[in-house]
Amino acid sequence: ELSELEKQFQQRIDAGIRIEPKDWMPEAYRRTLVRQISQHAHSEVVGMLPEGNWVTRAPTLKRKAILLAKIQDEAGHGLYLYSAAETLGVEREDLIADLHAGRAKYSSIFNYPTLTWADIGMIGWLVDGSAIINQVPLCRCSYGPYARAMVRVCKEESFHQRQGYDLLMEMCLNGTPEQKQMCQDALNRWWWPALMMFGPSDNESVHSAQSMKWRIKLFSNDELRQKMVDQTVPQAEYLGLTIPDPDLRWNEERGHYDFGEIDWDEFWAVLAGNGPCNKERLNTRVQAHEQGAWVRDAFMAYAEKQEQRKAK
Ligand code: FAQ
């Protein structure tokens, strides 16, 4: 049974009114947002690692500059998102401590290795492509600071997706047979993990029903996954690549592609920390944080000095 305050809150949501940090909100709404926004922030930051692996090996100066810019954008997204989470009364330091202690999740996709340069194309095309499909609706979600952060993030993700596809067009349409094969191998490895980004199927998704009522989610996991498949298949055809799914076919009646079953055992194993790179990713983050301690100390010392000057 909802209290009077909760009923009024739900009416505001239903009327499409944005919730702002100082508005009353149910504790569970706050907790859900902290969970989702912080996981999203962690994903952006950990997401820099697979691509960072290729900065020193990018094939040309132009590709290196593009890749660096993209990775820096991801750091920026992490920062907007931590700030959005902080409007809900939590401290960034605590969120990061949760990540480093293995208590907080980040997207499963970043636990896979980047073995060749074609993987950089796949991340842009499939991973940023999926991120856009998931995040464009979030620009209209009920929590103001999250929705506003998503507007700029989505613009940047569109550039990221295009750079990935551009890289793949170069290799698949203008490259050597070996380069095209390298792209096919990368697609074979990234396709299924990319579909897993949308989360468990709707009947396994514990948070979806409530999050949709609160308009934190506007579409279900399966709806967004279907959208990704429908949008991506023609793009694969244009590149001349084969999606590694024997069950993939156009369904005239549904007006959508049918596709095969995801290996959910793999998905849950990655979430439980047992993907190919989980330990490596977490160790790298923890080490980067520790090695960056002097920067935080320097900022604090500077801020204190400024305070003391003001006090004089
Ligand atoms: N990985 O009940 P649901 C990017 C967890 S894009 C790990 O369906 P919910 C850009 C879920 O948290 C990637 N965990 O949950 C980029 C929950 O666990 P919990 C980040 C997953 O929240 C590109 C449990 O399973 N994007 O970073 C995953 O309603 C290239 C049950 O699931 C976002 O975070 C998964 N794939 O729906 C950066 C978008 N799926 O918390 C660098 C915002 C599910 O109870 C390079 N987030 N789980 O312990 C969302 O839209 C939602 O949170 C979902 C999950 C759709 C991810």
From TrEMBL:
Pfam families cross-referenced by the UniProt entry: PaaA_PaaC
InterPro entries named among the record's database cross-references: Aromatic_CoA_ox/epox (IPR052703), Ferritin-like (IPR012347), Ferritin-like_SF (IPR009078), PaaA (IPR011881), PaaA_PaaC (IPR007814)
NCBIfam families for this protein: PA_CoA_Oxy1
Encoding gene (name): paaA
Superkingdom, taxonomy of origin: Bacteria
Name assigned to this protein: 1,2-phenylacetyl-CoA epoxidase subunit A
SUPFAM superfamilies xref list: Ferritin-like
